[in-house]
Amino acid sequence: MPAEGRQRIDKWLFFSRAVKSRSLAAKLVQMGRVRINGEKTSQAADSVKPGDVLTITLERRILVYKVLLPGTRRGPAEEARLLYEDLSPPPAPSDPTLPDALVPVRDAGSGRPTKRQRRQTDRLRDH
Fold this sequence. Notes:
Oligomer: single chain
Largest sheet: 5 strands, antiparallel
Number of strands: 7
Strand content: 15-25%
């Protein structure tokens, strides 16, 4: 039986809803994308305890969680939020000078020919 207040990292990640399944949590740990108190961990059996700071590298973001409690089950999101304190940095603000979507700029008549223009060039070739 593990020490009181300790829990396997893969279970904790699953219970805290950081990942969708326990097997994904184990793979994330084995790939070296989880740090416990700044040190890389590569075993899903490593344990975490309250007070540990986890740095989790996901595809598009980095999560920094301080462990508050060990999990007992994968419950609703409200219950999962009680397991950690989110210390993640806020997302980088987008540059307000750049528009979200750039509108393509081209001169009228340039680009793809219309159906009418294609037919006219075909008629000229036939004669």
